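INFO  loader      accepted 1 record
INFO  loader      residues=542
INFO  predictor   begin
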Amino acid sequence: MTRMVDPKSVAGKAPGVERRVSLVVVGAGPAGIAAATEAARAGIEVLLVDEHPVDVNMMAMDVPLYFGQRMSAAVRDRGTMLERVVQSSPQLEAAYDAGVDVQLGVYVWGAFRNAATVRELGGPMVGLADPERSWLVGYDRLVVAAGARDLAMGFRGWEKAGTMGAQAAHALSTRYRALAAQRMVVLGSGPLGLQVAAQALDRGVEVAAVVEVAPAARGDAALCRRLLGQGVRFFAAHAVKEAQGSRDEVEAVVLVALDGDGRPIPGRETVVACDTVCLAIGLVPNVELLSVLGCRLAFHSERGGWVPETDEWGRTSLPDVYVAGDCAGVHEGRVTDATVAAAQGRLAGIAAAESLGALEPGRVGALRAGLLSSTDGQPAPVHDRWMQWLRSLIEAGGWDVNACQCEEVTRRELCQVAPPRYLGWRSDRMSARSLGTLLRDGPVNQDQVKRLTRAGMGPCQGRRCREQVALLLAGEAGLPVGDIPLASYRPPLRPLPLSVLWPHDEPPAMRDDWVVWFGIPTQFAPHWSGRVEAGSWVALDK
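INFO  predictor   done
INFO  writer      dumping tokens
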């Protein structure tokens, strides 16, 4: 078959991959390390990448975790942080011994594969980057073990330095040993809140309070008693009214007691001095990479929201992509137990190796039977509880609180679908637009709301506001949260500087025709003259 190719098209000019490996594993937590180790032991070439230690500039933007400016100065010493990250993951030694190529401090900023609108790639690939450069790696199989991030919810003053997430506190306490908090208030109980409180105490951080909107603290009663014995005060049926501070730092929080309907009780306020407010309300699976790849996702409240559809091996709707650990679904029962995540990782690694012909099917079945013996109970839906938190925070702090910090969009402005304040203009046409008018077109789309209000467009890429925006839209529209479509993701999945993202290996043939591919004929004339004649096309035999 012969087809004609325009020499000014992108055909044949895509940047090449720096290397190609049989298996790429994303995430060096318990699940990712287990997957990489199992596959390598089967004789598969494995590349394991993890973004920790995170560059300090990325940390300052609360990416990938909500660090809240509570990192000590030690994080500026990248060599020391790398050493501590390795020391905090003893399982990495087994991965090294199995022959896994472990690359730490490396971000996955994109994923690319041929699809309906892309046909020129030599195969599936991921975009990687470190603080100096970016590059492409091709793969035959991919295991995504990207973990989870914190559910963030706003209250008056939460923009101040000192508000952070429980996952970030855990990472700074364990992986980095660089948590700068001195006196902490934890929002949320349950396994997550109680664990972060206990960890903080173990590392010399004073925990002033654990706050819960429910009538009683959730979680292990013995651990609650232990925390009480260590001086931690529990504030059940309370919410945060505001965070106070004379500068841009949290210095205290004002708590308000709630009645049975979640409304503040007049005269029942308590001021608690602290320099850190740790959000431990819930965890959200990291599905950014899976979404970009095109894996089929579904909403399951009992697993933390949008998660990939998988088979019993952790294989997604794309036969060469597997998932394991918290990005496949969060379960409160696993917060303090990594064995289930590790078992999922081993399954994914074994399945990937088997699909590449490295293991005999009979042996795979026996291994799987042994790994599935553990169980951790039936998880419960979480979004009703998250909605209870949000409504209580609104009742306590009001609607004029930023839901999106980066773009300074308040809850009220989001639900009114108001244009950004800094545009400084209004019109009858804009005032007529509302959530109600959007609902006429179908389910409220977060992408549409983002374009209209800019909520979610900041450098944190929606990590601090995405879930609370969905909750706000669902609450105001009277819809289940699962009916709010997942906001889309696209590369770069990390806010990397242009000095890192620029394609240093871009071929001259591609660079020469940039103006052609991005030119808009109605705005300027192309740099070439005349029409492309038939004789200037190149024939390719396929």
